[in-house]
Amino acid sequence: MDLALTSEGLLRETEHSTPDKPWVEMATLDDLSALTELVMDLFSMSSGDFRPDREVQERGLRLILEDPSRGRIAVIRNQDQIFGMVNMLFTISTERGGFVIMMEDVVIHPNHRGQGYGTMLLNYVITFAKQKEFLRITLLTDKISAESQEFFRKQGFNYSNMIPMRCLIEKNA
């Protein structure tokens, strides 16, 4: 499976007629600063599981951007700015017998919500998953955000009997 996909061959939303119409594409290292800001905003709105820490979030994003076999980050942008993103991490599922995506950090800047941009991002991810023959997309979203959960349900995501549990491994502990 070729995970180091360039934008060629993937449905691109960049074919637009007006210069300021937003489009979706894969992020690059040049986008790191803008992605870090979006994740910082997301974590500051989160339910307590996450603590915004610019250095930590930037390091995590860099690890993804530097090695496309780990995952990809899709962004929605116009000519001036990135205002939305989704993080896709790649792993293998024994249940599905192949590659799957763990989708996190789905965020649209508050000034751009309610305009269909979240749907554009998710459609891009789903198209990417189908073209690269991924077998499942698992989404992590805030438990207390009913608005987010309803949005994802409308996009075809359903609850699973699985629940996330985690064990934090602290450095120097």
Break the fold down into its secondary structure elements and pairings.
Layout: E1 23-26, H1 32-44, H2 54-66, E2 71-77, E3 82-93, E4 98-108, H3 117-131, E5 137-139, H4 146-154
Parallel strand pairs: 4-5
Antiparallel strand pairs: 1-2, 2-3, 3-4
Overview of this protein structure:
This protein is α+β, with helices and mostly antiparallel strands and 173 residues long. The chain has one domain: Aminopeptidase (3-Layer(aba) Sandwich). 29% of the residues lie in helices and 21% in strands. It has helices spanning 32-44, 54-66, 117-131, 146-154, and strands at 23-26, 71-77, 82-93, 98-108, 137-139. A five-stranded mixed beta sheet has the order 1-2-3-4-5, sandwiched between helices. Strand 3 (82-93) and strand 4 form a beta hairpin. Helix 1 (32-44) packs across helix 2 (54-66). It is globular, with a radius of gyration of 16 Å. The chain starts with 22 loop residues before the first strand and ends in a 19-residue tail after the last helix. Mean pLDDT is 86; it is low at 4-9 and 11-17.
Can you tag this structure with a few keywords?
173 residues, alpha+beta, Aminopeptidase, five-stranded mixed β-sheet, globular
Kindly provide the radius of gyration, computed on alpha-carbon positions and rounded to a whole number of angstroms.
16 Å
CATH superfamily: Gcn5-related N-acetyltransferase (GNAT)
Through-space gap between termini: 38 Å
> Mean pLDDT score, rounded?
86
Order of strands, widest sheet:
1-2-3-4-5
How many structural domains?
1
CATH architecture descriptor: 3-Layer(aba) Sandwich
Work out the helix count.
Answer: 4
Quaternary form: single chain
State the major sheet. Answer: 5 strands, mixed
Task: Estimate the global geometry from the Cα principal axes.
Answer: globular
Strand tally: 5
